[in-house]
Protein: HTH lacI-type domain-containing protein
Amino acid sequence: MRASNSRPTIKDIAKVAGVGVVTVSRALNNKPDISDSTRERIVALADQMGYRPNRHARFLKLSHNPAIALIIKGIDNPFFQQVLDPLEAIVREKNYLLTVVKVPHWADEVEEATKIVDEELMAGAIFLGGSFRHEASVFKKFNVPFVLSTVSRLPKVDDSAYSSVAVDDQEEATRAVQHLIDLGHTTIAALGVPEGDASVGAQRITGYRQALSNAGIPLDDDLIRFETREQMNPYTYEHGYHLAKRLLQERPDVTAIFAIADVLAIGAMRAIREAGLSIPDDMSIIGFDGITIGQFVEPELTTVVQPPLEIARLTCDVLFEQINDSAPVRHVFVPATIHAGGTTAPLVQSGEAK
Amino acid sequence: MRASNSRPTIKDIAKVAGVGVVTVSRALNNKPDISDSTRERIVALADQMGYRPNRHARFLKLSHNPAIALIIKGIDNPFFQQVLDPLEAIVREKNYLLTVVKVPHWADEVEEATKIVDEELMAGAIFLGGSFRHEASVFKKFNVPFVLSTVSRLPKVDDSAYSSVAVDDQEEATRAVQHLIDLGHTTIAALGVPEGDASVGAQRITGYRQALSNAGIPLDDDLIRFETREQMNPYTYEHGYHLAKRLLQERPDVTAIFAIADVLAIGAMRAIREAGLSIPDDMSIIGFDGITIGQFVEPELTTVVQPPLEIARLTCDVLFEQINDSAPVRHVFVPATIHAGGTTAPLVQSGEAK
DNA sequence: TTGTATGCGTTATCAT
DNA sequence: ATGATAACGCATACAA
Structure:
């Protein structure tokens, strides 16, 4: 039953067609130096015999494997799905195979990627998300082109060591918080980057601090909420829920929340409702990402929208120009937009809070 | 720059170590017939030289590729993510590589799968979701074990042609609709399986009809809503929203909705709110799947919960017992449970609707 | 315990 | 235009 032994090889086809293997190879790969008549004959025969090329054999010889590894960490965030989808389409369109490797959020994504890429002799890699705690050295091991998607600056690593396509997380976060400040809020909490995350989470928090600082609002670290439970994905509705639950208990003076991800915001919204507060009248909240579900919760989520299609397209552009043309590393920033939903409102100046 | 030419092979290691290639091969694969001292020496050397086995070479020889293809159609449904995640973990734990192939919902998933599996000489395949319009014949082409996950009965195909792990979609749908009937509803609409879908969608609609029939409620096909726009994924919030929007305009007599997927239900909830109706007082709605976000919308979604972990585990069980022990095909049904949220309520007997 | 020779399916080189 | 042969990296049967 465990067939596959029955699969015809070019040798079999050659035998049946009464030609040499190399002729078959040429016919199947649209190479020159072969008469149209024999080509057609062979192609038809191969099709009829149910021939499939053996990638292992082919790429053992060619040592060029048209495959891209897509390393994705923290898949739970639906936003990644929204960029993964077009990414996959584009890669396939270029006749490359995309191998998606999900790594648990506590694992070392670069380590995993190196292994896969090396063993499979892949042509390149894309890191979607991820929290890079790495030193520059780990990227040295990487001997194929790679791009960081939705991740921009890496604090410990020199720009020249990698490429990236992302929104300016810090800048956009500042704008988001500025939006809350413009509405009159001054006691603004932030949810929640775990310590040690050296990536988008940290940058968005930096943006938060920046906005407060710009506005002359004193920083209060107690308002920056996160949790560091091991083996727990920080980008989940649950996490946002728990963070907000505690926040509301401990800090009834808060009137607005900046969540570094929509999933956290949506989880927080439930906690806010459970606390008997109304959104946005008693509590404003703004998210980050622009995931689809944000438009279907009540009220519709106000958030910083990252353009998934554009990110996907640019990621592929940068990657393939490195693969095909040996182009140098590049850092692309794409603009985000604030989508005004119904979760933010001007601060009501009165003492009736709580 | 495009290195990978620099990767050491066992030949290089053998040269440096002053031994034969076969000794290296044995050392690296923990084979017997090799002294511990040389093994350790070689392993250390390989590590130091940054050796990585070349899968192409290895599996060209072995013609057994420890890789599983995961074909997933209609990825937009978040429920698939919830089973994909543990699935991936289990497969990796068994030291198999999982290649996820997403196919657009209008493509032929079996065709795609056959190609990949053949070319990569994969050991097996898992179909996650999908709408199988196929005749039995297409499965004959498949010469490796495969399992349909979250899909049970295929109308046109004999049971002996495939394995499956899923809830009993028809039965559970009947229970869901029965739940609405028990609350006193009689004018119950259903959202939305496109015509031609021969899979879970159709079965859940069949379950809906069954429930009405059991209760002696006359069937009204106008209450079964779906759309057949080409190239449009039916399992989205948007789709549910549009279906409900029209339904509410055309049929103000409806008091309850059965959605064949949670995404549709959640999309519909927005349409219901926009129509000025309250959930569940003016309109009850029940979903199917048990996606996480259902617990974070307001009110919390009442739904039929499929157990993703159990489905993932059983899918792997069935697949690997076929791969390793040549076990026969098997059909596993897992029980679902109705999660009582806040979107269903007893019918209020009065004329104030609308 | 270790090494030599062979072949997996394919493509490139060099012939004819 | 076509074919014989070598080579890709690895693992196995067999010999030493």
Summary: The domain at 167-305 of chain B is CATH 3.40.50.2300 (Rossmann fold).
